Amino acid sequence: MSKSVVVKDLSKEYKLFANKSERILDLLLPHKEYGESFFALKDVSFEVEKGDIIGFVGVNGSGKSTLANLIAGIVPKTSGSIEIDGDVALIAVNAGLDNKLTGRENIELKLLMLGFSKKEILEMEDEIIEFAELEKFIDQPVKSYSSGMKSRLGFSISVRVNPDILIIDEALSVGDKAFAEKSLAKMHEFKEQGKTMFFVSHSIGQMKQFCEKVLWLEYGVLKEYGDAAEVLKNYDNFLKEYGKMSKKEKKKHRDEGMARRLNSKADIKLETK
Amino acid sequence: MKSSIIVLKEQIKNFHLLRRLSWYEIKSQTSGNYLGAAWEIINPAIQIMIYWFVFGFGIRQREPIGDVEYFQWLFAGILVWFFLNQGLMKATRSIYQKIRMLSKMNFPMSVIPNYIVVSQFYPHLFLLGIGIIILQFMGYPISIYYLQLPIYTAAAVALLFSLSLITSTLATIVRDVAMMLQATMRMLLYLSPILWPPTLLPESWQPWLKLNPFYFIIEGYRNTLLGQSWYFLENPMYTLYFCGLVLVLFIIGSYLHVKFRSQFIDFL
Q1: FRET partner for B91 with CA separation of 20 to 30 A, picked from A5, A141, B68, B69?
Q2: What average pLDDT does the segment B130-159 reach?
Q3: How far, in Å, are A10, A82, A217 from residue A221 at the CA level?
């Protein structure tokens, strides 16, 4: 089978500035280093085959969404490489919807932004509306929608766009069961067509049901990547263990993770040697 | 230069996108108010009345400017100012406000400030239409000079687009730029020939005031609407200066825009 996503030594660095003047200096004097580096992701490498369904797990702030955004091409990478074979669509709750416009208008707006022509949009619109099951609300402004309705709309658009690679960032956790099942059915359909999917979720149950492989991130570093059942078991154990830790131990664990991410570039080079 | 070509190409290639997005922008802006689009008229009308009252009625004691009544003089100049001011301010804020809407990084981002400018252009045309009708009843009927109107309208759009490429990029990186610009625009309202004729100042000051490119557009509109002269032909050097300035601004703007746009999202 051919690869659909190859990620190599991918890092995403953000700068943490102690104050605003540092931030300005960093912009004005690019040859000097100001501020502290923070690695949202550090040297992550993995490969995904076509048709794989991958889950991303990890505690809050471990870099799951950053990784999803990097693969979707929304956020630029700092170093490393991502090779992607095909179109990517990211579904996140509330992503890219204009609150003041109606659902119908948002569909056109979103499709325009994705680069579809007038004719294509007309063809897709009805199907999206039907799938989203918004009924009368489709002509109401999006600000009156519940979060479930918003994510249904977002999901319906992204699904109809027919991407080769689909990234679902927490979007399904807000839908009701009926819609979640419908979405899962749709995703099974995609799977049969050989599409690759990424799942970002905190729901281990959903992951077990659907994912074949799981990627576990811890403090921006890839902790484990492999067969879903195995990784999820380890992750579950870790969560239990972490829950049992005393406050002090927890803090130490967090601090260690933080230290790894904060180190300046020079230190990291030494460490990896 | 390369970036200028990239930016220009993006505008042409995405013309349909530009039109639809600017249409939705207007809809989105006006949907929240009960009076909706009517505010595009009510707001300027209130401002014109107060300026006329303070400057024309109060300070100038209803004295005409040359042989033009103050109200007509103000009216013919200020119509385009609303477009210049609103267009520039909104376009400056456009990138950091809209970037979250984008779901792909390869979106032609230079379209963003432009579609905001275009979305302000529709109300301008509407306001201009109403202004022209009002002027008919005030002793300034449509004349042969109206033929030059498209030139100044195009000049206004070109200037706004070039300028907003610069300001929208800078404002995304440093938010304060938008605030600074707002203060500058407030200042320029008084330094442009809108509320009082700069001919009141000594002769030696005139060229300095004319460095402000809005001066050219406002005087052009006024000379057209009041049927006074072929402004751009009678001031060829000034016309040349204006075109040169727009070109330089566009080159700088597209250079900055293309250089920084891949990192825009990180500046949020």
Answers
A1: A141
A2: 92
A3: 10, 16, 6
DSSP string for residues in B91-150: HHHHHHHHGGG---TTS-TTHHHHHHHHHHHHHHHHHHHHHHHHHHTTT----GGGGGHH
Chain B contact probe: residue of A100, A114, A139 with most B CBs at under 10 A: A100
Q: Cβ(A250)–Cβ(A242) under 8 Å? A: yes
Write the DSSP symbol of residue A214.
E
| Nearest C-alpha neighbor of B124 from the set B26, B31, B33 | B26
Beta strands in chain A (DSSP E): 3-16, 36-49, 53-57, 79-84, 88-92, 165-169, 196-200, 213-218, 221-227
CA–CA distance, B192 with B184 (Å, rounded to integer): 12
* Angle at the Cα of B96 from the Cα atoms of B94 and B99, rounded to 5 degrees: 90
User: Which residues touch B167 (CB under 8 Å, ≥6 apart)?
Assistant: B88, B91, B92, B177, B178, B181
Q: CATH topology for A3-87+163-235?
A: Rossmann fold (3.40.50)
Residue type for A8, please? K
The residue behind tokens 């960093």 is A26
By C-alpha distance, which of B134, B130, B144 is closest to B72?
B134
- Minimal Cα distance from B109: which residue of A? A113
Q: What is residue A220's three-state secondary structure?
A: coil
Instruction: For chain A, 273 residues long, give each residue's pLDDT as a single digit of tens.
Output: 678 888 888 888 888 887 777 777 777 777 777 777 888 888 888 888 888 888 888 888 888 888 888 888 888 888 888 888 888 887 766 567 788 888 888 888 888 887 788 888 888 888 888 888 888 888 888 888 887 788 788 888 888 887 888 888 776 666 677 777 787 788 788 888 888 888 888 778 778 877 888 998 888 888 888 888 888 888 888 888 888 888 888 888 888 888 878 764 444 444 433
Burial class (CB in 10 A: 0-12, 13-18, 19+), B232: buried
Residue A98 forms contact with B (CB below 8 Å): yes
- Domain segments of chain A as ranges: 3-87+163-235
- Residue A29 and residue B259: Cα distance in Å, rounded? 16
| Residue A60 exposed, middle or buried by CB count within 10 Å (0-12, 13-18, 19+) | exposed
Best mutation target, A105, A144, A153, A158, to test chain B (most B CBs within 10 A): A105
Report chain A's terminal Cα–Cα distance, integer Å: 35
Helix (H, G, I), strand (E, B) or coil at B175: coil
What residues in B contact A109, CB-CB < 8 Å?
20-21, 24, 101
Q: Whole-angstrom Cα distance, residue A41 to residue A56?
A: 13
